[in-house]
Amino acid sequence: YMCWVGAKEPGGAFQGGTVLAAMWLLVMIAGLKRVPSISQRWLRLLVIVGPVVFLAIGVAGMVLANAFLAYPPGYAKPLIVAVEVALTLSIGVALGLLAAGPPERVQQQ
Fold this sequence. Notes:
single chain; mainly alpha
């Protein structure tokens, strides 16, 4: 809901990402999942997907509508929602990792 509202009202990606990060942290604090290693490829992809989608849509606007982040008529809402969803995921993962701190190292015996 927060992500969808962000397409037309203030708020959106950061607020939604914060809620996702808080839920992820609760799962880690409860011990249901461990803090993931930052060397995992899926985690790194989720962190960069938001900025990449934002920049790709912004540059596409330069080609299709003659301005950065300009949208062709009729495509504004779906493109804004796509940016919001991608940024929500990236922000959620980044905030979750920042709050969780580095994963514990397992001592080799």
